Amino acid sequence: MVKEFNILITGVGGQGVILISELLGRAAVTDKLRVRGSEILGMAVRGGSVTSAIRIGEDVYGPLIPTGKCNALVGMEPSEALRNIACLSKSSIVLVNTAITAPFTVFIGESKYPSLEEMLNQLGKASDRVIQLDAVKLAQEAGSRLATNVVMLGALFGTEQLPIKIETIKETIRERFPAKLAPVNIRAFDLGYETCRQAVK
Amino acid sequence: MKELTISSDAPGQQLFALGNEAIARGAIEAGVQVAAAYPGTPSSEITETLAGVAKELDMYVEWSTNEKVAFEVALAASICGVRAMASMKHVGVNVAHDPLMTAGYIGAKGGLVLLSADDPWAWSSQNEQDNRYIAEQGYIPVLEPSSVQEAKDMMADAFKLSEQFGQLFMLRSVTRIGHARSDITLGEITRERRKGQFIKDRTRLVYTPREARINKPLMLERFEKIRKAVNTLPYNRLRLADGARLGIIACGLSYSYTLEAVKWLAMEDKVSILKIGTPNPLPEELVIKLLKSVKEVLVAEELDPFVELHVKAIAGEHNIPVKIHGKDLLPRIGELSTRKVTEAIAHLTRAKTPVDFASIDKLEQETAPILPWRPPALCPGCPHRASHYAIRVASRRVSRELGKDIEPIYPGDIGCYALGYNPPQEASDTIICMGGSFGIANGLAHVVDVPIVAHLGDSTFFHAGIPPLVNAVYNKANITMVILDNSTTSMTGFQPHPGTGYTAMGNETVMLKPEDIARACGVKFVEVVDPFDLKEATATIEKAIRFEGPAVVVSRRLCAIIEQREKKKRKEATVPYRVDPEKCNVKCNACIELLGCPALIKEGISTVIDGSLCTGCGLCAQVCPYQAIVPEKP
Q1: Nearest to residue A84, comparing CAs of A99, A98, A66, A100?
Q2: B182: nearest CA in chain A?
Q3: Which of B367, B379, B612 to mutate to test the interface with A (most CBs of A within 10 A)?
Q4: Is residue B467 reached through a cis peptide bond, with omega within 30 degrees of 0 on the bond before it?
Q5: Quick one: B562 and B596 in the same domain?
Q6: What kind and span of H or E run contains B533?
């Protein structure tokens, strides 16, 4: 039985962060794993930072990932991945979707958006295993830009570190989405999975 | 196999649930028959969940106009012998405080539970108040869960305990319980449904001074019985480690952090732990046992030193020589965490922390300056953006005439429109409490001489906006009150209210109009505008500000998210706008700087509209000085 596996999913409101954590949680329960988690939605449906923790294992009690104890960080947006740098350790796997979403404060000159290189460089100081992928492109390849979050979910499983069975998560995806949308999402999952597996090798 | 849901009668089965769903499940298992609430983060999903299964389970669930009414609805049901609950966020309990302080005197016939959802770190609140103090003041016993599973179990038990001791109970949740997720094991559902019966009982129910004096000693007796009983409740547990120097008293969720911290430090055999599930009253016998067995104690609890002060009192009373730590090592501000508890234990035991936190902090501090600022923003197409803009333009027009140093004051309120306090709207000069915009405006009117334009939402108006509106009429406060009517309670998840025409259980009902209420209250200037007709809305608000005496403008437009959902249902296409690059002056930037709509973005130096976000409200087209923003062809 797994002792502790911590996943932090980060992104911007509207990117489907919570949906991914729900899929992971349901799949974990199906696989008879102990699961805890918590989310912070900011105050708005759209636009703000969103983080969601999913923690699996026998030694997990609290809803939050302790500082430095994240096993896998799923960054739907690079600056939001970076915002959560304190949860990382050298052995954490960091998956970064390279498609940026700049906040409006950047356009009104109230703040600056860093370059992708600078962000990846900074993440590299915390973790030795930063993996970048263009999840939006892969989602479009799968058939819908809206499946970007499921591409990232596939990538998470592509690390081959998860205590949840691949068949279980795929079944959970099929159950969660309407029949019409399930195939696109399964394709998105597979593309994310393969891309990450190649990158890990 | 039938899919497992929150109302499934499937004892022993596992479900992945949100904490608030688990709390609702606990109430379902206890056979709650009446549930009333006013929405407020982090409590809203409890009543939403109950409302969704109310008809199927033969319960009555309502969204009340405010927390005071919600509590009174539940109290009445309890008086009639029916199991009842009221749910609210921590500051909602302030609104219910009046009946709450006498409810303890009345006691409970049908099990009565108040759910208080506290919000350490004020993630979505105006303060961090610790409602265990309110409970103590009212002789209300408190159950405080350490996990989502325990929240469910406690909720189910709370009704039984309430009936067993004849006293109402409080379940104190926090954000990381209500908005945590976990596997939960379902329990049995009680199918018993009681018929409410009102038995006239002057001595217990009619509070003149005589009854207060009769009932207070009875309440104290009930509370003393509870004080003894909590020592054997399963929610309070003492685990003594042989020869331990350090003991930890961990209240509520802090217990989960403590278990992880002790494990992380590999000190499971070295510290004694007392888990507290009833901070009010504390299990005194267990506390004494722990205090006598160790040299030092750390009290881990979120927010105020509630347990700590009581533990210190117990130690003093019984002359136990033990050093008690708490808020000297753990913060009064914000949430606790495994890390914070780990550091406090490491400090007391002179142990090394399992991780070099200092180096992680250094990297985080070094990262902070390069991160873009991403405040939550009003949604694309949000009508509040237009209202804020119209209020500002109209107020400035008037104030400019009064003198160049005259700045209008914009008292704001609790709701989505509060997001407009960020740039570029900067729409609120005060945000204090529900209905506070109109109340503060009343006071300002008698001490400053500038235009005062207050705003609040429709749900907030019904909740706490009517008394200050009446006050403005009665006391002749020269203020403008704008009601931002988006026909829902949007911030907390689109709950219905008295202006929407339907109830929590989906039944049709009357649709109250704020403008009718304002007129009935004697306001002489009442107008209704559509904020997306910016010119007209601005002109009307300007007239209202110029009007001598209190004036009301209802700025009505359906919440953009609901509108988009309804359009989708009707299979109606959204026609987004686009920027015509031929006409757009790239140096202008007015649309972005004035409106800050998430759909307006920059690609290089060009302003473009993200067609996937744009709802086609056309507000930016109205403010563009170059007429460069036009609808995409449908």
Answers
A1: A66
A2: A36
A3: B367
A4: no
A5: no
A6: none
The answer to whether residue B517 is domain-embedded is: yes
Mean pLDDT of B259-270: 98
Furthest-apart CA atoms within chain A: distance in Å: 51
Q: For residue A44, what pLDDT is reported?
A: 53
Cα–chain center distance at A169: 14
Closest CA to A66 of A130, A131, A4: A4
Three-class secondary structure of residue B536 per DSSP: helix
Based on the fold, state whether residues B277 and B293 are members of the same structural domain.
yes
* Residue A43: predicted pLDDT: 58
Residue B224: how many CB atoms within 10 A of its CB? 11
Provide the domain count of chain B.
4
Tokens of B333: 């501000």
Distance from CA of A127 to the nearest CA of B (A): 11
Same domain, yes or no: B340 and B450: no
Tell whether pTM > 0.80. yes
| pLDDT tens string B337-348 | 999 999 999 999
Q: Give B18's strand partners.
A: B181
Instruction: Report whether B417 contacts B457 (CB < 8 A).
Output: yes
Q: Is B461 in the same domain as B505?
A: yes
Closest partner residue to B183 (CB to CB) among A29, A62, A82 is A29
pLDDT at A46: 63
Q: What does the block give as tokens for B481?
A: 């009150």
Chains A–B, number of C-beta pairs less than 8 Å apart: 184
In the block, tokens 């923690």 appear at A55
- Identify whether residues B212 and B297 lie together within a single domain: no
DSSP character string of B572-624 = PPP--EEE-TTT--TTT-HHHHHH--TTEEEETTEEEE-TTT-----HHHHH-
Among A47-56, B28-37, B287-296, B382-391, the least confident range: A47-56
Report the DSSP beta bridge partners of residue B276: B251
Whether A43 sits inside 8 A of B124 (CB atoms) is: yes
In tens, the pLDDT along A50-97 reads 999 999 999 999 999 999 999 999 999 999 999 999 999 999 999 999
**Whether B252 and B357 share a structural domain:** yes
Interface touch A37/B182, C-beta < 8 Å? yes
Peptide bond into B498 cis (omega under 30): no
The strand pairing partners of B173, in sequence order, are B117
| Residue B495 domain boundaries | 383-567
Q: What is the 3-state secondary structure (H, E, C) of chain A?
A: CCCCEEEEEEEECCCCHHHHHHHHHHHHHHCCCCEEEEEECCCCCCCCEEEEEEEECCCCCCCCCCCCCCCEEEECCHHHHHHCHHHCCCCCEEEEECCCCCCHHHHCCCCCCCCHHHHHHHHHHHCCEEEEECHHHHHHHHCCHHHHHHHHHHHHHHCCCCCCCHHHHHHHHHHHCCCCCHHHHHHHHHHHHHHHHHHHC
CB contact under 8 A, B598 and A104: yes
Class of the domain covering A5-200: alpha beta
Residue ranges of the domains in chain A?
5-200
Q: Give the one of B180, B372, B612 whose C-beta lies nearest to A79's C-beta.
A: B372
Q: Is B532 a member of any domain?
A: yes
* B184 CA: distance to closest CA in chain A (Å): 9
Searching chain B, which residue's CA lies closest to the CA of residue A34?
A: B183
Q: How confident is the model at residue B422 (pLDDT cuts 50, 70, 90)?
A: confident
Buried b (16+ CB within 10 A) or exposed e, B390-409: bbbbbbebbbeeeeeeeebb
pLDDT for residue A42: 61
Interface ipTM > 0.85: yes
Inter-chain CB proximity B373 and A37 less than 8 Å: no
- Considering only CB atoms, which chain B residues are within 8 Å of A77? none
Decide if B613 and A118 are in contact by the 8 Å CB cutoff.
Answer: no
pLDDT of residue A102: 92
Q: CB-based contacts of B437: which residues, under 8 Å, 6+ apart?
A: B411, B412, B413, B430, B431, B454, B455, B456, B465, B481
Asked if B620 is an interface residue toward chain A (Cβ–Cβ < 8 A), one would say no
